[in-house]
UniProtKB/TrEMBL annotation:
<dbReference type="InterPro" id="IPR005151">
    <property type="entry name" value="Tail-specific_protease"/>
</dbReference>
<dbReference type="InterPro" id="IPR029045">
    <property type="entry name" value="ClpP/crotonase-like_dom_sf"/>
</dbReference>
<feature type="domain" description="Tail specific protease">
    <location>
        <begin position="194"/>
        <end position="393"/>
    </location>
</feature>
<protein>
    <submittedName>
        <fullName>S41 family peptidase</fullName>
    </submittedName>
</protein>
<dbReference type="Pfam" id="PF03572">
    <property type="entry name" value="Peptidase_S41"/>
</dbReference>
Length: 417
C-alpha cells in the first residue's frame, strides 16, 4: 500500500468507522487534500513528513483530537521544540520545559519568525483550535517555525528552534499531605496497577482525612476503570451516579481493532480488568451491528460505588490539558455533593471517544480514531471544543509560573469552610 492508498483508507475509516461520521458528513475535503498529495507524488516530493502534515490538516476539519496519524518507525520525525507555551495578552509564555536547555520556565516569546504573536494568532486560527488565548495550541506552528524572539530584562534575542522527539510521559500518580489535606496528582488514567498500589499504600490516610484536592490539570486520558477506584472516597454513602450513555459503532473494522487493544491491555495487568472483560463481551454480542448502546448493568451491579463519610470535601483542579477519560472523571465526580471544581475548562475531547487503532505495519503508521458517540450530543449538551466548565473559574496568568495559584486557591477554599 502506497501513501496515496493509505490516505484513501484513512478517508474510508473517517466516513464509515469513525463515530462522528454521520454528524460531520460533508465537513471534510478529501478531494482537496488528495489533490495536494497527488501533486507532490507526481513531482517525487511526497515525503513522509509532508504526508503527515497533509493528513493532519485533513483531520482538522473533523474538530476531534481523538483522530491522529502516528509514525511507528524509529526514525519518525521530531514532534516537539522541547518546550510548551501559553498565550497571555501579547506574548507567549513558556509553561513547561522538556529537552530545550536554552529556554527556561517563564521565558517570554514576543515573535515567531519575526512576526508578532497576535498577528500569527489571527492568521493561523485554524491550527490554534480555539478563539480563547489561554486555550490555544501552538505546537504545530512552532514545529514549522525557524526562529523565536525572546525578551528578558528589556533585551530581545533571536533563538533558532531545535526539534526533538516528543517526550513520552510515563504514568505518574502522586499523593502528598498539604496543610492537613491530601493532594492527589494524576497525569493520566492508564496504569491500573499503579493506581491500586497508590491507594493501598495510603489507605489509612484516605480513610481519615477530611479534605482532598485532586489535580487532573494534566490528565491526558486513559481508562475509566482506573479512576473508578477513586469514586468511593469522592461520593457520599449510598450515592447515585448517572451517565449520559453512548452509542458504540460496532463495524467489523472497529471490532477487530478494539479487541486487539483490549487483549494487549489485559496482558500487561497483574489481574484481568473486570470492566474490560465486560466491554469485550459487549463487543462480541454486538459485532457488525452498527451503532449500539452497550449494556453494563450486570457489571455495575457487581461493582457498585459504596461512597464514604470521609473525606467531607473534595476539590478538583482542571485545565485545558485534562482530556478524554480525564474529562469523564470530572463529569462523574462533579455529581457528588462533596465536590467543587476549580480552574479552567477542560480540553473538550469526549463527545466522541473509545479510540481504536488501525495498524499500517508496512507503511510504518498507526491511525487512531474514535468509535463511540455520547448521547449528550442529541441534547445539544456536547463538550467538544469548549470543554467542561469549572464551578469556579481561575484565569491563567504568568503568576501561575511563579507559584501554584490553583492549589493555593483550593487550600484557601478549604480553610474558609
Amino acid at each position: 500500500m502506497g501513501l496515496l492508498h493509505l490516505f484513501d483508507t484513512i478517508v474510508e475509516i473517517m466516513h464509515h468507522d469513525y463515530a462522528g461520521h454521520k454528524d460531520k458528513e460533508g465537513w471534510d475535503r478529501p478531494d482537496y487534500f488528495r489533490g495536494k498529495l497527488e501533486e507532490l507524488d507526481k513531482n517525487d516530493q511526497l515525503t513522509r513528513n509532508r504526508f503527515e502534515q497533509i493528513v493532519g490538516d485533513y483531520l482538522l476539519d473533523f474538530q476531534d483530537e481523538h483522530n491522529v496519524l502516528r509514525s511507528i518507525l524509529d526514525e519518525a520525525p521530531p514532534t516537539s521544540v522541547g518546550f510548551r507555551v501559553r498565550h497571555y495578552e501579547e506574548y507567549l509564555f513558556v509553561d513547561r520545559v522538556d529537552q530545550e536547555s536554552r529556554i527556561q520556565l517563564g521565558t517570554i516569546i514576543t515573535e515567531i519568525d519575526k512576526v508578532r504573536i497576535n498577528v500569527i494568532a489571527d492568521e493561523m486560527r485554524r491550527y490554534l483550535k480555539s478563539t480563547v488565548p489561554e486555550r490555544e495550541w501552538w505546537e504545530s506552528i512552532l514545529l514549522e517555525a525557524k526562529t523565536i524572539t525572546i525578551e528578558k530584562d528589556g533585551t530581545k534575542t533571536l533563538v533558532e528552534l531545535s526539534h526533538y522527539d516528543n517526550p513520552r510521559q510515563p504514568s505518574n500518580y502522586v499523593v502528598e499531605e498539604k496543610e492537613g489535606t491530601l493532594l492527589f496528582r494524576f497525569n493520566d488514567f492508564i496504569d491500573l496497577n499503579q493506581m491500586k498500589s497508590l491507594l493501598e499504600t495510603h489507605k489509612d490516610q484516605l480513610n481519615s482525612t477530611y479534605n482532598w484536592i485532586i489535580d487532573v490539570r494534566e490528565c491526558r486520558g486513559g481508562s475509566d476503570s482506573v479512576y473508578h477506584l477513586l469514586l468511593d472516597g469522592i461520593f457520599q454513602p449510598n450515592p447515585t451516579l448517572t451517565h449520559d450513555g453512548m452509542l458504540h459503532l460496532c463495524t467489523e473494522r472497529n471490532y477487530h481493532n478494539r479487541m486487539t487493544t483490549f487483549k494487549k491491555f489485559n496482558n500487561i495487568l497483574e489481574s484481568p480488568d473486570l470492566f474490560i472483560a465486560a466491554f469485550m463481551i459487549q463487543m462480541d454480542v454486538n459485532r457488525g451491528k452498527g451503532f449500539v448502546q452497550f449494556d453494563f448493568s450486570e457489571f455495575n451491579e457487581d461493582n457498585p460505588i459504596k461512597g464514604s463519610e470521609l473525606p467531607k470535601r473534595v476539590i478538583l483542579v482542571i485545565d485545558k490539558f485534562c482530556g478524554s477519560s480525564g474529562e469523564q472523571f470530572v463529569l462523574d465526580a462533579k455529581q457528588s455533593t462533596k465536590v467543587t471544581v476549580i480552574g479552567r475548562p477542560t480540553k473538550g475531547v469526549l463527545d466522541y471517544s473509545n479510540q481504536a487503532v488501525e495498524i499500517f505495519k508496512h507503511e510504518g503508521y498507526e491511525f487512531v480514531y474514535a468509535t463511540s458517540r455520547s448521547n449528550r450530543i442529541d441534547r445539544n449538551e456536547g463538550i467538544d471544543f469548549n470543554g467542561i466548565n469549572p464551578d469556579i473559574y481561575i484565569k491563567w496568568t504568568p503568576e501561575h509560573l511563579r507559584k501554584d495559584v490553583d492549589v493555593e486557591y483550593a487550600l484557601q477554599l478549604i480553610k474558609n469552610g
